[in-house]
């Protein structure tokens, strides 16, 4: 019987999906994928975002091997891509489950059959908790873990779940925060109060401690490791107090995409606990990587012998105007590219004859809603009207969210599949 993931191939292509060939309207995604069109002469229109098939495969394997090597379970953050096909590939490469941040993301994951969800946020919305209670009741194999950082929050969860007639307890981890950061308790005393209140509820079950090291102010190797040791110490302290009495394993979780090496190092120091420790890493940006922030901060820069990641995104846009020397206007702007961290970079230019050259000497100066300003000092080397310009970008989360259907492109330019996102 076809799964929800299988049925994505039956979606009909139409005006909702920018960049796809106009003559593909009315075909299904599966039909178009089977045609294996070439990105550059198969009717695709610019701007069009692409993912490198080879880079995505490399990244999936690389971090999967890293987690295995260091004895870490892995629940990559799904909010990065919101792409069920990528969720499934992450699971196929050994991920324990998928991390999400808000109820909508959890609903997407569940709609596509994800059986283990780590909701890395406080959840106090009665409607969302009622839905979650229903999911737990309907599927004995489904597992969900959520954050708590206040007694008030626990009381709201307890009331909402009891009102919904919850039949299975919802797993809760106490979130450890940091002064000046976002959510999370600020002291061990607060953590103990939250843990005790969870244990007083018949519809909640305390299962561990978690947090996000990326919120450490002015994070560096020393400060991140110090915070991670506080997380480990809190876990041991709550366990010594006998607060993990209703769980078979004790979850300890952290790990964005910038410090997973520190997480692996400090989690290896976790002392013996009363129950097996479940060390859970949650990095998400790795699946696509990028040409900006994550290229610069990935731990593989510090431990290259442990693996590597490749940028998978390329956005193609076309030169539509050369109004003055040293300036080319391309038809991609704020509606199409990520710009919250860094402006895109000009990587390559493809001319009318299909020749691709490096974008050396070219830079993207600024963006408007639908145009980007490409500058170059040598006017003779500027791309011509009609040329395609390939851009690299920073910050996967805000790249994926602008594109509901993304061509997956092999190295020879063949579009092999399409990645559907749900933001």
CATH class of the largest domain reads Alpha Beta
Quick one: CATH superfamily of the largest domain? Alanine racemase
Strands, total number: 18
Write the CATH architecture name of the largest domain.
Alpha-Beta Barrel
User: What is the N-to-C order of secondary-structure elements (H for helix, E for strand)?
Assistant: HHEHEHEHEHEHEHEHEHEHEEEEEEEHEE
Our measurement of the CA-to-CA distance between the termini, rounded to an integer number of angstroms, reads: 27 Å
Strand percentage lies at 15-25%
Count of discrete alpha- or pi-helical segments spanning 4 or more residues: 12
Can you give a write-up of this model?
The protein is built from twelve helices and 18 strands. The protein has 423 residues and is α/β, with parallel strands linked by helices. Helix 7 links the parallel strand 5 and strand 6. It starts with a helix and ends with a strand. The strands form two sheets. Strands 1, 10, 11, 12, 13, 14, 15, 16, 17 and 18 form a ten-stranded mixed beta sheet that branches. It is globular and about 70 Å long.
Strand-helix topology:
Elements: H1 4-7, H2 29-35, E1 48-52, H3 53-69, E2 73-74, H4 84-92, E3 98-100, H5 103-111, E4 116-122, H6 126-138, E5 143-148, H7 151-163, E6 170-176, H8 188-199, E7 204-211, H9 221-240, E8 250-254, H10 260-267, E9 277-281, H11 293-297, E10 313-324, E11 327-330, E12 345-350, E13 356-358, E14 362-367, E15 372-376, E16 388-392, H12 396-400, E17 405-409, E18 415-420
Parallel strand pairs: 1-17, 2-9, 3-4, 4-5, 5-6, 6-7, 7-8, 8-9
Antiparallel strand pairs: 1-10, 10-11, 10-16, 11-15, 12-13, 12-16, 14-15, 17-18
Helix pairs in contact: 6-7, 7-8, 9-10
């Amino acid at each position: 019987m076809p799964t929800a993931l299988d049925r994505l191939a039956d979606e009909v292509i139409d005006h909702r999906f920018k960049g796809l060939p106009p003559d593909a309207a009315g075909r299904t995604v599966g039909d178009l994928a089977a045609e294996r069109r070439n990105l550059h002469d198969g009717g695709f229109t610019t701007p069009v975002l692409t993912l490198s098939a080879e880079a995505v495969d490399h990244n999936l394997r690389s971090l999967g091997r890293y987690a295995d090597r260091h004895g870490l379970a892995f629940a990559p953050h799904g909010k990065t891509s919101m792409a069920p096909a990528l969720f499934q590939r992450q699971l196929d490469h050994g991920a324990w489950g998928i991390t999400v941040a808000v109820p909508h993301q959890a609903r997407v994951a569940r709609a596509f059959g994800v059986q283990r969800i780590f909701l890395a946020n406080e959840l106090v919305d009665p409607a969302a908790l009622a839905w979650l209670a229903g999911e737990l009741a309907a599927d004995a194999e489904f597992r969900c873990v959520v954050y708590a950082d206040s007694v008030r929050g626990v009381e709201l969860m307890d009331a909402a779940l009891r009102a919904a007639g919850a039949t299975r307890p919802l797993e809760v981890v106490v979130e450890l925060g940091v002064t000046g950061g976002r959510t999370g308790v600020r002291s061990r005393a607060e953590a103990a109060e939250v843990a005790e209140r969870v244990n007083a509820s018949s519809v909640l079950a305390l299962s561990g401690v978690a947090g996000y090291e990326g919120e450490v102010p002015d994070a560096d190797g020393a400060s991140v490791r110090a915070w991670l040791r506080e997380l480990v110490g809190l876990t041991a302290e709550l366990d010594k107090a006998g607060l993990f009495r209703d769980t078979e394993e004790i979850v300890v979780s952290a790990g964005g995409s910038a410090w997973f090496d520190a997480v692996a190092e400090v989690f290896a120091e976790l002392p013996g606990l009363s129950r097996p420790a479940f060390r859970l890493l949650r990095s998400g940006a790795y699946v696509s990587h990028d040409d900006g922030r994550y290229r610069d901060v990935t731990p593989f820069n510090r431990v290259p012998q442990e693996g590597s990641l490749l940028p998978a995104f390329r956005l193609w846009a076309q030169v539509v105007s050369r109004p003055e020397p040293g300036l080319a206007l391309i038809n991609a702007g704020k509606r199409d590219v990520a710009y919250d961290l860094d402006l895109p970079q000009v990587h390559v230019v493809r001319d009318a004859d299909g020749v691709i050259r490096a974008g050396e000497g070219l830079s993207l100066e600024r963006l408007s809603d639908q145009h980007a300003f490409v500058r170059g000092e040598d006017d003779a080397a500027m791309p011509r009207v009609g040329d395609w310009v390939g851009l690299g970008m920073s910050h996967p989360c805000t790249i994926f969210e602008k594109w509901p259907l993304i061509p997956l492109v092999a190295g020879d330019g063949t579009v092999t599949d399409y990645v559907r996102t749900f933001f």
